[in-house]
Write a structure and sequence with these properties.
Bound molecules: cobalamin, iron/sulfur cluster
Helix content: 40-55%
Radius of gyration: 22 Å
Number of strands: 16
Structural class: alpha/beta
CATH superfamily of the largest domain: tm_1862 like domain
CATH class of the largest domain: Alpha Beta
Number of domains: 2
Length: 487
């Protein structure tokens, strides 16, 4: 059986504040079809200190391709380091890139000499067709959804429309040691899964709105498959809680209801939490629906609010209003589930007043609903292909011209030059302080060092944040030094 080697590059900064790894759903999903016919090997850089040795060993088996996955940001740097190593060790091995970044920036990715082929968008079918073509020496132009080089020219074979998830085989769990990816959330053995992909909404900062992709077309696993998946991970691995990574779980309310009923009646010893739910969905559904959510053991729902300023919500086309946010929160307060509200800052045109409105909203949500938690106020990072990106370009943002540049493009390092200098400082201080006001202990398996620091610093962070008292903030510099030594 021919071999295919998959490598998941480390994600950088996030590794240092987390005590566990996320199941690498992206690259594992991409492998679901090829796993049926090839000898697939998987290396997770975060787990393998000596990954280079392992890669070398696999290269001796002459894999038909080596594949890496990358999100925009630090993961690209690790993917580049990996690709460089492969080139050095075996210059003819085909290097394939996939994942969110190559999907939104395929041309620049394929132009890099450390990439031979880019898989754009959903991996399952394209990756399978590609492996087949490489194995049988067939022309790459027959594989829809890829970018490749031919006689020095870049070729694109056209966009592939995404498949029906229900038709995909189950994830190839056997490729990983599942215990490495089962942290304890809420004291329960947890695993990441998905039940849907994409989102039809139009938020101007979100990768789902990138024009050249099919991400806005929402597609989902059926309630039956979702329940079967949950049952499988419970019975095989002892999983007690499933964390759905969906960007918008509730697009089809009937489907979501059927899943909740299935969990309640067939899997009542299991729990779940979900990433993607919109505030207007909570506002829309009736109380029986929320009762069912609780009865199906949903411990947490993560809701993107993004800003407490209506001006900013309108700018980013979030299509929600402030009243809805408070109304939905009060409605949720009657139920035994914990909403975690996600916020962002540093959007273009944001002022001190907008930021203050966000901070006020965070405190008010917790006051109105003691079970409510808030995320870190993540700094807006522009992604190419989104509507807001064009604005920040006009406002002075210098687009990275290389993959390395995009590797350094993350909130830790991007200078928000679309904002006045004074506001940049406010944004950075807000982000830093918000890290200490999150609900990480119960919902997120954070590293012990981070949790200890959080406990000590929380009262100061609360005072500074509430009053926007950011004078003499030496703390971010200090923590940067600590993190650097810790990494
Ligand atoms: C879990 C998660 C994380 C985890 C780890 C993710 C990982 N890759 O290991 C952590 C917490 C570390 C993380 C961090 C961040 N994340 Co995140 N994260 C997610 C989340 C919620 C789920 C990822 C997932 O498992 N998806 C399910 C899989 C199946 O989808 P997929 O990865 O796209 O994979 C498919 C294809 O892309 C393709 N594919 C993927 N890999 C490969 C490889 C090959 C070889 C091939 C052929 C195909 C292929 O096939 C897959 C199946 O079809 C997504 C949202 C989402 N639902 O996707 C955001 C998401 C990936 N994150 C995002 C962002 C913005 C971030 C942060 C920048 C957030 C922040 N402000 O700090 C950081 C970046 C960290 C860094 N330094 O790089 C964006 C990515 C945007 C972008 N341009 O890359 C997403 C899409 C959310 C969003 N809608 O904006 N994240
Ligand atoms: S609702 Fe969420 S996932 Fe959907 S487009 Fe907006 S930010 Fe993206």
């Amino acid at each position: 059986m021919a071999e295919v080697l998959l490598i998941k590059p480390s994600t950088g900064w996030y590794d240092s504040i987390k005590s566990h790894l996320d199941l690498p759903l992206g690259i594992l999903s991409a492998a679901t079809l090829i796993d049926q016919e090839y000898d697939v090997k998987f290396i997770d850089q975060q787990l393998e200190q000596n990954w280079k040795e392992k890669v070398k060993k696999e290269l001796d088996q002459n894999p038909i391709l080596v594949a890496v996955s990358a999100m925009t940001g630090g993961q690209i740097l690790k993917a580049l380091e990996t690709a460089e190593f492969i080139r050095q060790e075996s210059k003819d091995t085909k290097i394939v890139w996939g994942g969110p970044h190559p999907t939104i920036m395929p041309l620049q990715t394929i132009k890099d000499q450390r990439a031979d082929i880019v898989v754009q968008g959903e991996g399952e079918e394209t990756f399978y067709d590609l492996a087949k073509a490489l194995e049988k020496d067939k022309p790459l132009k027959e594989v829809t959804g890829i970018w490749y080089k031919e006689n020095g020219n870049v070729r694109f074979t056209g966009q592939r429309h995404y498949g029906d998830p229900d038709k995909f085989p189950m994830l190839p769990f056997h490729l990983v040691n599942i215990k490495d990816y089962m942290p304890s959330y809420f004291g329960l053995k947890t695993i990441n899964l998905e039940s849907s992909r994409g989102c039809p909404f139009r938020c101007t900062f979100c990768k789902n709105t990138v024009k050249e992709t099919d991400y806005r077309r929402w597609r989902a696993w059926s309630p039956k498959t979702t329940i079967d998946y949950m049952r499988y991970v419970r019975d095989e691995f002892g999983v007690e809680l499933v964390h759905f990574q969906d960007e918008n779980f509730f697009v089809n309310l009937k489907r979501a209801k059927d899943i909740m009923e299935g969990i309640k009646t067939e899997l009542n010893d299991m729990h779940w939490i979900v990433n993607g739910i919109r505030i207007d969905t909570i506002d829309l559904v009736n109380e029986d629906y929320l009762k069912l959510l609780v009865e199906s053991n949903c411990l947490q729902i993560k809701i993107g609010v993004e800003s407490g300023s209506q001006k900013i919500l309108d700018l980013i086309k979030k299509d929600i209003n402030i009243d809805q946010v408070y109304r939905a929160n009060r409605k949720l307060a009657k139920f035994d589930t914990s909403p975690l509200y996600n916020f962002m800052c540093g959007f273009p045109y944001e002022t001190k007043e907008d930021l203050q409105a966000t901070i006020n909203m965070m405190f008010k949500l917790k006051k109105d609903n003691p079970k409510a938690q808030t995320s870190a106020v993540n700094m807006y990072t522009p992604y190419p292909g989104t509507e807001l990106y064009d604005d920040v370009l006009k406002m002075g943002f210098k687009e990275p011209k290389t993959l390395e540049g995009w590797g350094n493009h993350s909130f830790e390092s991007v200078e928000p030059m679309w904002l006045p200098k004074e506001h940049q400082k406010l944004v950075k201080s807000t982000f830093f302080l918000s890290l200490f006001l999150t609900g990480y202990e119960s919902s997120y398996a954070s590293s012990p060092i981070f949790l200890a620091a959080k406990k000590m610093y929380e009262p100061i962070a609360k005072f500074r944040m509430k009053n926007m008292f950011f004078k003499a903030m030496i703390e971010p510099k200090l923590s940067e030094m600590v993190l650097k030594n810790y990494q």
